[in-house]
Specification:
554 residues, alpha+beta
């Protein structure tokens, strides 16, 4: 009897030593439990913070004295401690060694549970061992998991142990992972969908009615920018058991559901653009933010996506690009130039001014403000060449396949003779541009850098955008001076435009016959625009009043 008491004392002393070293199971009478901090999910076994502790409510019940002839190896306390220690380290091989007849997919079931839970960390709080028989025991424990958005997820389970072949083993079922999981069951993450989502304005509002942007919204949907099958809104963790309906055990729903895919369109600017075109049968107004290239408004009465895809001769608005080439090649806004009623290209055709106006000797700034065809034709023939003009147009987006991921910009074939070069210099000949393209030209003058158009808010994928192109400082400053002169003393003066507006008028011949097309491009602050009226007549008479209504409404 004395020997048996001595043997029991040795076993208890060994157990105290093991648990004290491991720091895993602490007497419930202690004032504080020891911590073993659990690694965030994905950390290799043995690293990272993990936590494993005992509830401090009562002391573990001592194990009954084993009989000498059937003493099992170790104790249920030791086996449970080793199992939990391996669990918080995601050491499934070590856990498997402690389980009686583990299933072949033991590790896979654990991994699938973790893949569904997506826990950022795991903490296990161990309760007090309960002996349920001479060879069986049970120990309750609590899992605490930090879940994305949902905070801390807590639930209680129990670990069952039994003596197998004189060794204490874990009797494992999927209920160890979660008490609601039955054999053959699993934890599944679901992501409910909201949708389909349509494009909305930058502020999250629906587009105004009859805004002229309907075709652009539909195009974004067709391009797959806006998910037509919805987007995930929150998530849920469900237990799926064979032959039973799924049971939701944890879920997260955001307070605000997305109302749509945000574009760069500004609601108030879009309304102003749409109302400025009221009464216009065939026209378009495109507004962009010069500092970013974001499209702020697109009101289109051309049909389809005409403002982004249909090219027209830009007329004298293209003189902005020709002027940039001249400024880059030695001229300044104050350079003296001639503006005769007509200019005879040597050995070629004669170029007339609009209504054969003769302004004599003036500055380049005045020639731009008065839109002298003869001035720009002569300077282009004498100072530039075909390659120079084409290269300058390319710097303003002409020739790019896409106008910044939003639509087509402009095109210019290399002029093959002086007649073609002169015609191209003032926006006729082979020059073509969309209203979007010319809005970007005006934006480049204001900001000093040509930027591609951006139709979607920053967090949405934009696709591959062309590179932005900075303008030389003297070119940008000179163009601003010249465009300001247009509204102060030139073809757009006295037309009701708000103070601070700069721009360029354009009147372009229709190659197919009929009345001329009307253009006006410009900027005011960090807003640039292009107004186009198909067969509208002159830029001053048809396009400038639309721009004035638009700007005054902002």
């Amino acid at each position: 009897m004395r020997n048996r008491a001595l043997l029991a004392l040795v076993v208890v002393a060994a157990g105290i030593f093991v648990f004290g070293v491991a720091g895993l199971i602490v007497s419930g009478r202690q004032e504080a439990s020891s911590d073993f901090v659990a690694a965030p999910r994905g950390t290799p076994a043995g690293g990272g913070p993990q936590t494993l502790q005992l509830r401090p409510d009562s002391s573990p019940e001592p194990s009954p004295e084993p009989s000498p002839e059937s003493s099992p190896e170790g104790s249920p306390d030791q086996t449970a401690a080793a199992y939990f220690q391996a669990w918080v380290k995601s050491d499934y091989d070590a856990m498997r060694e402690l389980v009686d007849e583990p299933p072949d997919d033991f590790a896979d079931q654990h991994r699938e549970f973790e893949d569904a839970a997506l826990s950022k960390s795991l903490r296990i709080t161990v309760g007090n061992l309960v002996r349920t028989g001479n060879d069986t025991a049970e120990i309750p424990f609590t899992q605490e998991r930090d879940e994305q958005d949902a905070g801390t997820w807590r639930f209680d389970s129990s670990l069952h142990l039994a003596v197998r072949d004189l060794t204490w083993k874990v009797v494992w079922t999927p209920a160890v992972l979660h008490p609601d999981i039955q054999p053959g069951g699993s934890l599944v993450r679901t992501e409910p969908e909201a949708g389909p989502l349509r494009p909305v304005t930058r502020g999250g509002r629906e587009f105004p009615q009859n805004s002229g942007a309907e075709a652009y919204i539909d195009n974004l949907m067709n391009q797959g920018v806006a998910p037509t099958t919805g987007v995930a809104v929150g998530w849920a963790l469900e237990v799926e058991n064979p032959g039973m309906p799924a049971k939701t055990i944890l879920s997260y729903k955001p307070e605000k559901r997305p109302v749509g895919v945000r574009t760069t369109i500004d609601y108030a600017t879009q309304v102003a653009a749409a109302r400025a075109l009221d009464g216009v049968q065939r026209g378009a107004l495109v507004a962009v933010r010069p500092s970013t290239g974001e499209i702020l408004a697109v009101a289109d009465r051309l049909g389809g996506r005409g403002a982004f895809e249909r090219k027209y001769a830009p007329g004298s608005t293209f003189k902005t690009i020709t002027a940039a080439a001249l400024l880059a090649n030695g001229l300044s806004p104050d350079s003296s130039v001639e503006c005769p009623a007509s200019y005879q290209i040597p050995f070629n055709r004669s170029i007339p001014n609009y209504q054969n106006e003769d302004h004599g000797t003036i500055t380049l700034r005045q020639a731009f403000a008065l839109s002298c065809n003869t001035t720009f034709a002569r300077l282009t023939i004498e100072r530039l060449n075909a390659d120079t003009l084409v290269d300058q147009a390319r710097a303003f987006g002409f020739g790019e396949g896409e106008g910044g991921g939003a639509g087509t910009c402009g095109s210019l074939r290399r002029p093959e003779n002086p007649d073609a070069l002169a015609e191209d210099s003032f926006g006729q000949g082979t020059v073509e541009a969309t209203p979007l393209c010319m809005a970007l030209v005006a934006a480049a003058v204001e900001s000093g850098e040509w930027r591609p158009a951006r139709p979607l808010a920053d967090e949405a994928p934009q696709g591959e955008l062309p590179q932005s192109v900075p303008l030389p400082s003297n070119v940008a400053e000179g163009l601003r001076s010249m465009m300001s002169a247009v509204t102060a003393d030139g073809t757009a003066a006295g037309s009701g435009l708000p103070q601070g507006t700069a721009g360029k008028t354009g009147t372009a011949e229709d190659w197919h016959g009929g009345q001329d097309h009307a253009w006006f491009i410009g900027y005011r602050g960090d807003l640039a625009f292009a107004v186009f009226v198909e067969h509208g007549g002159t830029g001053r008479g048809a396009a400038v009043p639309i721009a004035a209504r638009f700007l005054k409404a902002l």
